[in-house]
Write a structure and sequence with these properties.
The chain has helices at about 1-30, 45-65, 70-90, 95-110, 115, 120-140, 145-165, 165-185, 195-215, 220-230, 230-245, 260-265, 275-295, 300-315, and strands spanning about 30-35, 40-45, 340. It has about 350 residues and is mainly alpha-helical. It is about 70% helix and about 5% strand. α1 packs across α8, α2 packs antiparallel against α8 and α6 runs antiparallel to α9 (about 195-215). A 3-stranded mixed sheet has the order 2-1-3.
């Protein structure tokens, strides 16, 4: 217990320091994006700080023998690092969405425990891991949203791992949650650093794959219910965007201000409120998922989660987001270096 607290504290402090340090080179190298709402540059290397802090602390705990991760968890961390590297390349340059999906799928296929799940269910797990990883990348459309949801989900999946006596996995998830918390010190609205594809893909991949590990050996339908509840907010955001773009006749991979936080801001919420409200929704889904996993509530509770997600999506679909006039950047907001619009 004390070792876990020490590891989490170290990860939090290390991530906070690295995020502050990496902000300067990101600005100088032009590794930034411009937020649509404020037309200001935001450096993107905060995700790299989360990855480095998580991996460094987890490996140190494993090598010292204080908190061994185990072979499966170690392989998971390596695969997560590969996904993070792919995301970092996307942050620095331009990488097509299909390349991100394919790379994440390869990494997922290398960590799924096919012996426990079976090949058909294992392939479904690969698809679900990719879906969640891309979903977390999509959640990085607003300050602190992906980080907040990541922390809440990490605690939930960590509780499931602890219930299965997967101590190494539980330690890794606590370290990830702590690293994200350190990053959030710089990412709370108005953010000084962004998570980027590097951090968001790494977080989503690690959480989804860890959740698959905790449900390996359980039935397919009950596991699907638990996994959906643990990541209900990311699923809701993806569903909202896909339906919205399809109804508007827009390409599904074309970016736009049509995510959850964008619509909440259109309804008049503050940037902080547009993060806190989805965070509360994410907590509710994670809480139900944990209760179902440990058997404290019926698996039919997933229907309530699904119903809430559907109602929220249908309500937010009514918020107009397309065809709205974009703010024109003034001369004082223009910066040198390659910039991206954060809307997809």
């Amino acid at each position: 217990m004390l070792y876990g607290i020490a590891a989490a504290t170290t990860a939090l402090l290390l991530a906070a320091v690295l995020t502050a340090l990496l902000r300067v080179p990101a600005l100088r190298l032009g590794i930034v994006e411009r937020r649509r709402q404020r037309q200001r540059p935001v450096p993107l290397l905060g995700g790299l700080a989360v990855v480095l802090a998580t991996c460094a602390v987890a490996v140190a705990m494993d090598r010292s023998g204080v908190a061994p991760l185990g072979a499966g968890v170690g392989r998971l961390l390596i695969a997560g690092g590969a996904v993070a590297l792919l995301g970092l390349i996307a942050d620095i340059g331009r990488v097509k969405a299909r390349v991100l999906v394919a790379g994440t799928a390869v990494a997922a296929a290398s960590v799924v425990p096919y012996q426990e799940t079976g090949v058909p269910a294992g392939l479904l797990a690969v698809g679900w891991i990719v879906f969640v990883a891309i979903g977390f990348k999509a959640l990085d459309h607003a300050d602190a949203l992906a980080g907040t949801v990541g922390v809440l989900t990490a605690f939930g999946v960590g509780a499931c791992a602890a219930a299965e006596l997967m101590d190494g996995l539980a330690v890794l998830l606590s370290v990830l949650a702590a690293a994200l918390t350190g990053f959030l010190m710089h990412n709370w609205p108005p953010a000084r650093v962004g998570l980027g594809a590097c951090g968001s893909l790494f977080t989503g991949f690690l959480l989804a794959a860890s959740a698959v590990f905790t449900r390996a050996g359980y039935g397919l339908a009950p596991s699907a219910g638990v996994l959906f509840s643990l990541t209900a907010l990311a699923s809701a955001d993806v569903l909202l965007v896909v339906l919205s773009r399809r109804l508007a006749g827009r390409p599904p991979l074309r970016g736009g201000p049509d995510h959850v936080a964008h619509r909440l801001r259109r309804l008049g919420l503050t940037p902080q409120g547009a993060t806190v409200l989805p965070g509360i929704g994410a907590f509710a889904g994670v809480f139900v998922g944990v209760l179902m996993h440990i058997g404290w509530t019926a698996l039919s509770a997933v229907y309530w989660v699904g119903a809430v997600v559907l109602v929220v999506v249908l309500m937010l679909l009514r918020v107009p987001v397309y065809g709205l006039r974009r703010p024109v950047p003034t001369q004082s907001t223009q910066v040198s270096g390659p910039l991206r619009v954060r809307n997809g």
